[in-house]
Amino acid sequence: MTLPLADQARLTAGASMWTTAAVPEAGIPSLTLSDGPMGIASGRVDERDVALLSPCATLLGASFDVDLARRVGALVGGEAVARGVDMVLAPNINLARSPLAGRAFEYFSEDPLLAGTLGAAWVQGLQSTGTGACPKHMVCNDSETDRDHMNAVVDERTLREVYLLPFELCAAAGAGAMLTAYNRLNGTYCAEQSHVTTIVKQEWGFDGPLISDWFGTHDTLGSLNGGLDLEMPGPARFMGAHTLTAVEHGDAKAERLADAAQRVAHAARRFGGEKAAPALDTEAVLIEAAAAGMVLLKNEGHLLPLAPGGKVALIGPNAANPCYQGGTFAKIALSPEAIRPLEALRRAYPGLVYEPGVDPQPRLPAMPVSPIAGDAMRGMTVEYFASSDMSQPPISSETRDTNSLVWFVGVHDQGVFDAPAAIRASGWFTAETSGEHRFYAGATGMVRLCVNGETLIDKREKMAARDVMGSLKRGDAESATLHLEAGAKALVEVEFHYDGARVHGLWYGVRGPDSAQAMLERAVQAAREADTVILMVGETSDSSVESKDRPDTRLPEDQIRLIEAVCAANPRTAIVANVGHAFDATWSAQANALLLAWYPGEGFGPALADVLTGVREPGGRLPVTLARQDSDYPALELTPDADGNLPYSEGIAIGYRGLAAKGVDALYAFGEGQGYTHFAWLSATPAEGGVTVRLRNEGNRPGSEVVQLYRHQPEFALIGFAKAHLAPGEEADLFVPIEPRMLRIWKHGWQQLEGDVQVSGGRSSRDMVFTLAL
Questions:
Q1: Where are the alpha helices (DSSP H) in 34-146?
Q2: Going from the N-terminus, what domains does the chain have, and what CATH number goes with each?
Q3: What mean pLDDT, rounded, does the chain reach?
Q4: Structure confidence at residue 463 (pLDDT)
Q5: Catalytic residues
Q6: Mean pLDDT of 724-749
Q7: Which residues make Cβ contacts (< 8 Å) with residue 745, sequence separation at least 6?
Q8: How confident is the model at residue 240 (pLDDT cuts 50, 70, 90)?
């Protein structure tokens, strides 16, 4: 059935924020989309829409486990089935080019093969449920600074061999669609990138639609002629009916419109039908996955595993306030029943003593209040007004137990957001201790915070409409102090006035008077009195944010002081780093053990307890390099130049490749990590499509080994990997496949590597065990 041109045009734009258009008479259903990749994100960005939270992609990258990535994808697919979602905007297969990238926790690795292989496995797992995967963000959206406009300047070889490779592997795995990036590539917006489109559709033979990231289109002809098939969200801004006009005026070819419509229709028919959730024990998979990606980088004196018994001090802010995810619009509302690390470790180590050591919420603290109306025990009463005149009764109200609220036009039922209006949030705060309390408030418009009728914050300046999204993503807040006596009950009121915009946000909090010095002194005393210290440091959810990169790789200064003081008081310290990206770990020299936990999903608490006590091993290896100093990273600075250009001047020498080319030694190398046992590598034999390695577990614990294959010419690069799980004393052959695409280079076209290829196998990028000629 040939669709009328009007129906073809209708298919090229979304019907709403999260749905595509349907043509029922042609058997083309509407698809419901959701953001990802750590779970099924609520389109409302609402703390009440609880969903399963899986580990971040960096942790999955650290697992080096293709089967596990597939099962985690299937788990997310099961969630999609349960929630009526047809396609998920995931996985994120951009690369950790710089450790400063604000969204690096969503990236599998700095290595394109590892990222693409695990991303493709995740795609297959998700799509095994009948749910479509839409890998993102194509291409070179590897940083957040000015991502809506910056221009990634990349040579052709680097583009094809490095940044497009993960997308190519996902396309070969049958991904349902691809999401184009916000940024420009070599001068052209990615939603209009005909060069990339030609590679994807013609060279790879990809048959799915290319979808714009939300509000990522700029022009009708540029998008349509550039190869974009679907503009999101709806209603249309540049595509949809505008494409019909373009064809009728001869500015675009009818064949191009037909191709776009056919691709959208194909995806709708493919993923709009029956689905089936997998038979998975979700809790078991989430705990297994969290442990499988934890990386043990240091373990002097075999401090870990630490059996129960003796006096254990748990110190650090991330024990009670762990970081599960970064601050993106794909944020998942975590179940309140998820077991936090503090609770899990108290169960594992009876008599454990806990001290935070530093403020666990350094940027925006919580707002622990009770509402002024309703039966809820916690939260602010949020009232919505029809205009900026708050003397009139509110049009609606609700209770929200969160310190950060976001509203999208057309998504939220409450309030008016596309015209000037106002919101008031009110609650009763009871001071636990006497002293100066600091109150915080920020918003995408004018905001005023009052306590007991006294104005503490009054931010009156309006912002340009184009800056609303940037203000929301930055989340900057004003603050002011007020003395309160212990037990005092104070009425907190936050008024928010705004002009119409596609999204708005309001955030607030209060910090008690406990001093930094007092917290540090209590932590040091606990360390002195303990036999062993578990020190949990790391990030908060606003440390890694969408549209904002980091200034450096260091942990907060107060945490570094805490590390130094605790390790000086008790060197039998195991540091657990709850960080989602490459970071400065030079302070690890002061501790006996270092365990990287990344952002492990809701299985964090039980998985960490299992790993520390030895019930499970830390199965991860570094998917990114930890350099000795920031200047050692081949790519670091992410601020575009005055013309908006961000040159990828390191070319294909990304991450560990760049350090190897310069002869620079890493602090902890790509691929590095250890478990609780030891493996002997008995032999290595070339085989069809790879290498067979014979391994023996020589320890008394079950464990895993990751065999990594690297080529030496023309540049050092990972070309294959595999993971073995063996019981104590077990011996087995492990086949390590070599990805054929890694045995070619781009030089005016694809050229196969000539002659014998020198391949080394090792435990990391700097620990080689054998070398073969293939």
A1: 57-63, 66-82, 112-127
A2: 282-362+515-643 (3.40.50.1700), 370-511 (2.60.120.260), 677-773 (2.60.40.10)
A3: 95
A4: 67
A5: 213
A6: 98
A7: 157, 161, 714, 751, 753
A8: very high
